[in-house]
Amino acid sequence: MPLALLSLFDIVKSQACTPNTWLNLTALPAPRQEHSTVAINDTTIAIVGGIIPIGDAPETTDIMQFYDISSDTWLNATPAPYKVNNPNVAVVEGKIYLLGGLIDGPELPDGSTNWVASGECYVYDPTADVWTALEPMPNGTERGSAHSGVHGEMIYLAGGATMLQNLYQDSVTMVTAFNTTSGSWQRLPPAAAGIPASRRGGVGSIVGDTFYVIGGRWFGQLNVTSTVFMLHLNDQAAGWKTSPDHMPVPRGGLSGDVVGSIVYTFGGEGNPNTLTGVFNETEAFDTTTQQWTKLVPMAVPRQGTHAVAVGNKVYIPGGGLQQDGKSVVVNNVTLYENLSSHFDAYCV
Ligand SMILES: *[C@@H]1O[C@H](CO)[C@@H](O)[C@H](O)[C@H]1NC(C)=O
Ligand SMILES: *[C@@H]1O[C@H](CO)[C@@H](O)[C@H](O)[C@H]1NC(C)=O
Ligand SMILES: *[C@@H]1O[C@H](CO)[C@@H](O)[C@H](O)[C@H]1NC(C)=O
Ligand SMILES: *[C@@H]1O[C@H](CO)[C@@H](O)[C@H](O)[C@H]1NC(C)=O
Ligand SMILES: *[C@@H]1O[C@H](CO)[C@@H](O)[C@H](O)[C@H]1NC(C)=O
Ligand SMILES: *[C@@H]1O[C@H](CO)[C@@H](O)[C@H](O)[C@H]1NC(C)=O
Ligand SMILES: *[C@@H]1O[C@H](CO)[C@@H](O)[C@H](O)[C@H]1NC(C)=O
Ligand SMILES: *[C@@H]1O[C@H](CO)[C@@H](O)[C@H](O)[C@H]1NC(C)=O
User: Fold this and answer.
1) What is the pTM of this model?
2) Which residues line ligand 8 (CB under 6 A)?
3) pLDDT tens, position by position, 218-234
């Protein structure tokens, strides 16, 4: 076909990407982790919230950045209405929904991290470039780090966390749903309103009509899990099921997304076998056969980031190079965290 007849979209989709290889992309404008990553459309990825280094210590941010896939470039977008890390973010019909997350809580006597839940909700319309307030999360359901999925007009949030301190980090079971048509939160049948065990920082994915919650941890970072929880969204009264097929390597703080019927999962933290505490695993779950496959490990192993799939690539911006809070000596300096600006994609 003559080039002139190919749309930009076709060219982007056909960009060379050898299956099962890692592709380095333009680094983020600043090191960053604990953000959320979504695709607005087939050409634009957005990262929302998280923490970025300000002086010596990372701080919770409201910065939103767009990545243009065709030109491999980043640009600053209109900031989120509040500073938030581990935000619950989803795209429905080209609009970005920011549904709560973790925010800086009251300062602790020793000045250590104290993140608490926020239930503030907003929607961003890229065409109008405006954030608009939505109904907040119902009292008692405020949280961040939930596993999210989009099913038609609905955004589902499963599990998550209501707080994070150095020595205490909770995880919850609750499942809630936001209806983007009515602009309101909806109740789920009791059997669907809780995952079988509390989780934070796993991978949430809706494939067809089934919502999957994969891996993640409960409470402390070393309490990593390998479970696959499943809910048929068209038969919610039947409740959550646990797949007999576990992830090959239990992990928390991992990232992932779905391409076709396969959920790809990457990295994470809570690894007792590496100096950094980070996992390098790339493992794929085929939802049709319920089988796991181990794939090419991450070239730059990371945790605490969020992945998004567009076409045949899974994009993974930033993240942490080590387990947060663990003492790791790098170049004779002891680090307790190490935020990365590295940006790459896994070619499926
Ligand atoms: C990708 O980036 C990482 C981190 O900067 C680097 O270590 C690696 O060599 C790069 N890979 C390629 C193929 O350029
Ligand atoms: C995707 O969204 C971005 C940001 O709103 C916009 O600039 C771009 O034109 C959109 N691309 C397509 C193909 O709609
Ligand atoms: C939210 O729930 C808490 C605990 O049950 C209660 O103390 C508080 O009054 C509630 N707030 C609102 C706005 O309903
Ligand atoms: C979402 O809200 C609309 C408008 O109230 C309603 O018609 C629709 O049934 C709701 N969707 C679901 C899945 O409950
Ligand atoms: C798991 O979480 C519990 C509850 O916070 C904690 O007491 C325990 O130390 C954790 N274990 C590991 C291995 O992280
Ligand atoms: C991945 O990490 C494991 C330790 O968890 C290590 O044994 C292995 O060599 C690593 N693989 C690569 C390709 O770096
Ligand atoms: C590492 O740091 C210590 C303390 O600052 C110093 O005494 C030592 O010489 C350093 N070692 C190297 C190899 O730089
Ligand atoms: C983070 O880790 C990388 C890789 O080990 C290292 O090159 C870098 O210097 C570390 N960052 C800081 C701030 O020390």
Assistant:
1) 0.94
2) 321, 330-331, 333, 335, 338
3) 999 999 999 999 999 99
Instruction: Look at residue 22 and tell me if it is in a domain.
Output: no
- State whether the beta carbon of 143 lies less than 6 angstroms from ligand 1: no
What is the total count of domains within the chain? Answer: 1
Please give the Cα distance from 230 to 217 (Å, whole number).
17
The DSSP code sequence of 246-281 is --SS-BBS-EEEEETTEEEEE--B--TTSSS-B---
Domain, as residue range, for 283: 3-15+31-347
Burial class (CB in 10 A: 0-12, 13-18, 19+), 165: middle
Is residue 271 one of the residues assigned to a domain? Answer: yes
CATH number at residue 68: 2.120.10.80
Is 25 part of any domain? Answer: no
> From the CB of 140, is ligand 3 less than 6 Å away?
yes
Is 26 near ligand 1, meaning CB less than 6 Å away? no
Instruction: Please indicate, yes or no, if residue 26 is contained in any of the structural domains.
Output: no
CA 116-253-50 angle, to 5 degrees, is: 50
Can you give the pLDDT at residue 15? Answer: 61
Question: Which ligand does the CA of 22 lie closest to?
Answer: 1
Residue 298 in tokens: 């991450």
- Asked whether 138 lines ligand 3 (CB < 6 A), one says no
Do the bridges between strand 114-125 and strand 163-165 make them parallel or antiparallel, or are there none, so unpaired? Answer: antiparallel
